[in-house]
Amino acid sequence: MNNFPIEKIKSHFLQALPSTNLVIQAETGTGKSTHLPVWASKHGRVLVIEPRRIACTSLAGFVAETLDSRPGEKVGYAIKFAHQYTDETDVVFVTPGVALRWFSENRLGDFDIVMLDEFHERRIESDLLAGLLLKHAQHRLIVTSATLDSDKLSRYFSAEVIKAEGKSYSVTISYSAKDSSHMPSIRDLENRVAEAVNWALEDDGDVLVFLPGRKEISSCMGQLRQCGAELVQLHAGVSDQERQRALTTSDRQKVVLATNVAETSLTIPDIVTVIDSGLERRTHQRNGRTVLALHAISKASARQRTGRAGRVRPGHCIRLYGEFAPLESYTPPELEREELTDTMLASACCGYELESLSLLSRLPLKSVSQATDRLLAMKAIDNHGLATAHGKALYPLPIDSLFAHLISGMETKGSREAMIDLAAVIQTPQTLWRLPSTELAFDHYKAWNSSMCDAVTNIAVLRGEQVEAVNVDSDVQDEARKVSSAIRQALDLPHWQAATKLRRDEWLKNVICQAPELVYVRREKRQQAFTNGYSEVLLGRDSLFADEYQAAIVFGQFHLAGKRGAKQTSSYATCMAPIPLQWIRELGLSDCTSAGTVEQENEQLEVVEHTYAGRVIHREYRKPEGEGLLVALAELILNGKHFAFGESLKTSIEYWNLYQQVEADAPLPAIEPLEWIKVRLTELGVETKDDLTLVDASDFEFDGIPDWEYEGFCEKYPLTVTLSDLQLKVEYFKARRTVMIHHVGGKRKADPKRWELPRWQGWKVQYRKASRLVDIK
User: For residue 543, what pLDDT is reported?
Assistant: First the structure.
């Protein structure tokens, strides 16, 4: 482990560590991740927190090898579903999630020194760990960062700053976009990457291509198969063998296609040219949930990517966007852009209310409020923000807290197992299965899954049931099965191979009761869009959701940013379970309101509407009773179907309201004609339709504008105006002295003239027809 730039600070580091926390500012590739933990182990047992799983296993293996040791002896690691370490291991590399769970168990009492590596990435769990460690104040801290403000970190951690200068060669930067302000784009990406790679391969040296995700890597791999170089993938889901190919020198010229896991922690040898797509998949909030969507990278990330070239000799970076593209300066910390439910639960299970911690980022108040409300509703925290027994049971499960809550809320063993297996699939980022495009395959699939329920297919594929019509990704299947097995073991349930038979309806109704916000209905006029009243999702391009279904439980979503950024993000449903509309009503999710009355076969019936998410999902007609009966009788009167004065009464009340608005010194509240008649009916003791025969028009005289004023007021402030071939409705706005006349009907195309309208002296007159508004002068 010699000849790394970090060696220059060794003596300073070892001298300072026993007495103070340290912030080490050093570029990627200086050796900080591999050297500092070994040096620090001279002063106690070291826990190294790496943002990514692939970095944990790679670094642990590399450091163990340099110490002539096997992984798990002197140096080990622990990630989700895998670990190699003992109680005697000096240095353990872990992900932030593992470290948080260990903190919740014993406050990391088995370690003396904690190193937060690559802290500039500002992962939400790393920020939380920093706050917890400072609050607990029992560990010596080492914080490494390549780009963050070292003075700010020094103040936050009460630490001394040590800077390590890296050795690098110059890197020439070029831009492929014709427009200098062109933002990074996914459009035609594989062809643009292929063109840049073929150019780069004309020189010797390896090529590193930064792409946003596994899907784009696969597309580019296919496009580059004839390029003549060795093609290697590098992302979180690659095998150990594939990762080793990326991280070791090869006899052939190599092209490494990587996500932003290659920005930090991992050093890829022999890279001379970097090709930067300028894209990444990044989390942000949408409708109160954390979602993953495509984003342009920040300028800081662009510098990090460029720095991967120029390690062994002068290098080159080709950016597939414009030189002056308006990238943000830094990637916002996850604490500021993600929802905080899981973070708040983690803090609570570690023994601290989230808001009591000193964090490097200010917590958004709205996010804190939403997280608190959710966890209280789940009964996962108490009123002091600390974890309940239920919250502590949810936290260890390796999935989103919503799915953990759903699992714990299932009433039967079979439903609980179904929820576990579905959650395991959804928590695995890649696509588990795809349907072949042939019509025959579709017919086979529909015969097997008549409701075409994505959730049922996901569960069946995980359990290895025979689903001949679909193509299964075995790597994703293995990952999902690991998650399922871990949860099943934690809850003392049988292995997925011995799963209880799924009772679909029973399970889905249980889900609705536990998480009603997952229920979506089609929009009436846009059948491809679904809403739950708070957010909207669209049917994905590959969705098999049948046209005849009008409602679904939406378990999974995919989010795609629009051309103008995240504010135009569209959400697509990726896992839908069709349900009948009547379930929504039967399970008490709909609102029931009276929608007036209708006359059928000489009988007045009350219309009762059941609505959900703004859509009427059911109408029923019944004989009116109580309040509904009063409404029905009032409508009979108002519509002139019992007494002839309904229209004149309505007009009198409208003019009274207008009189209060424009003339009264102390205006009285507006009166609704229907409400006034209801009150009058109650005063008269009317309880049935037959009782109307006992009253007459004189009982409904409205004491409004005095008779001596009424006619003149109506002439001065008409509510309607009729011109030649034009009918108008009039509104008055006293505060701005404006009369608004609305087009109601008539064949006239020209606007009304000022001279043919009432005088309205001192008032501004405007004319509205549809969305067009003009001043009449």
Answer: 75
216 and 150 in one domain? no
Range of the domain at 100: 5-164
What's the CATH number where 187 sits? 3.40.50.300
For the chain, percent helix, then strand, then coil, each to nearest 5?
Answer: 40, 25, 35
The 10s digit of each residue's pLDDT in 55-77 is 899 899 999 999 999 999 999 99
CA dist., res. 348 & res. 401, Å (int): 13
Average pLDDT, the chain: 89
Q: Within a domain: residue 584?
A: no
- The token pair at 321 is 């966007």
Amino acid at 74: K
Domain boundary among 114, 130, 164: 164
Note whether 371 and 401 are within 8 A (CB). no
* CA–CA distance, 508 with 499 (Å, rounded to integer): 17
C-alpha to C-alpha distances, 213 to 208, 250, 271, 715, nearest whole angstrom: 14, 24, 20, 71
Domain boundary among 285, 305, 336: 336
DSSP, collapsed to helix, strand or coil, labels residue 531 as: strand
Q: Are both 709 and 722 inside the same structural domain?
A: no
Q: Are strands 315-319 and 519-522 parallel, antiparallel or unpaired?
A: unpaired
Domain-located, residue 465: no
Hey, what amino acid is at 173? I
Tell me the pLDDT tens digit for each residue of 203-261. Answer: 888 999 999 988 899 899 999 988 888 999 988 777 778 888 888 888 889 999 999 88
Calpha distance 666→135 (Å, rounded): 60
Tell me the one-letter amino acid at 243.
R
Structure tokens at 267: 């050093």
Q: At which residue do the structure tokens 């103008």 appear?
A: 564
User: Identity (one letter) of the amino acid at 716?
Assistant: K
352, two tokens: 């601290």
Round to whole Å and give the CA distance between 691 and 689.
5
Contacts of 373 (CB under 8 A, 6+ apart): none
Q: What is the mean pLDDT of residues 396-400?
A: 86
**Backbone phi, psi, residue 458, to 5°:** -60, -45
Q: At what angle do helices 53-66 and 240-247 cross, to 10 degrees?
A: 70
705 within a domain of the structure (yes/no)? yes
- The phi and psi torsions of 47 (rounded to 5 degrees) equal -110, 120
- CB count, 10 Å around CB of 687? 13
**Exposed, middle or buried, 674 (CB in 10 Å: 0-12/13-18/19+)?**
middle
Which amino acid is present at 417?
Answer: E
Amino acid at residue number 369: S
Amino acid making up residue 768: R
Q: Is residue 157 within 8 Å of residue 148, measured between CB atoms?
A: no
> How many angstroms separate the CA atoms of 638 and 729, rounded?
20
- The arithmetic mean of pLDDT across residues 643-648, rounded, is 85
Task: Tell me the three state secondary structure of residue 82.
Answer: strand
**Sheet strands (E) in 131-217:** 140-145, 159-164, 171-175, 206-210
pLDDT in tens, 615-628: 999 998 877 777 77
First-to-final CA distance of the chain: 86
Q: Where are the alpha helices (DSSP H) in 592-645?
A: 626-638
The predicted structure's pLDDT at residue 265: 66
| Tokens 């007159």, residue located | 765
Q: What is the pairing mode between strands 315-319 and 271-276?
A: parallel
CA distance 342 to 401: 6
Helices (H), 427-527: 439-448, 454-462, 474-490, 504-514
| 272 and 145 co-located in one domain | no
Q: What is the pLDDT of residues 88-104, one digit of tens each?
A: 999 999 999 999 999 99
